[in-house]
Amino acid sequence: MVRILNITLNGRPRADAVGDNVLLLDYLREQVALTGTKTGCDGGECGACTVLIDDRPVFSCLRLAATCEGTKIDTIEALADGGRLSAIQRGFHEKLGAQCGYCTPGLIMASEGLLRHNAAPSEAEIREALGSNICRCTGYVKIIEAVQYAAGLIADGDRP
Description:
The protein is an alpha+beta fold and about 160 residues long. It has helices spanning about 25-30, 85-95, 105-115, 125-130, 140-155, and strands at about 1-10, 10-20, 50-55, 55-60, 70-75. The chain contains 5 helices and 5 strands. It is globular, with a radius of gyration of 15 Å. The mean pLDDT is about 95.
């Protein structure tokens, strides 16, 4: 069955016909052409597909698009403002939090979800918030430093 999906995607209202069996990840990448959200494990184990639904991190590979009716969805494409990187994007860039880069959009969106609800998280809170996102390159030290750096930028009023 196909239905009309009404959502706010990256700050803009949209109405699209979607099948009841279409994953949010596939809707975003294939129908809307927002390819910043990555397909990783395709089973909810790696977090590469993380987006924010109503400001909460969600694995888009586990969510049917049709269940998102009336929600606000933000993808990695929503963060930069007029070409200016967001605080969390700057953190990942300046603190070298992005390694090969494949998991980076998911880690950034999970971090953004944390910072929207807790602008000054502790290291333990950062680790817990990112616990469902896997980076296969190296450790998480630079990623945690990136989130702490972004929290500092936000505290200084640097949030687009």
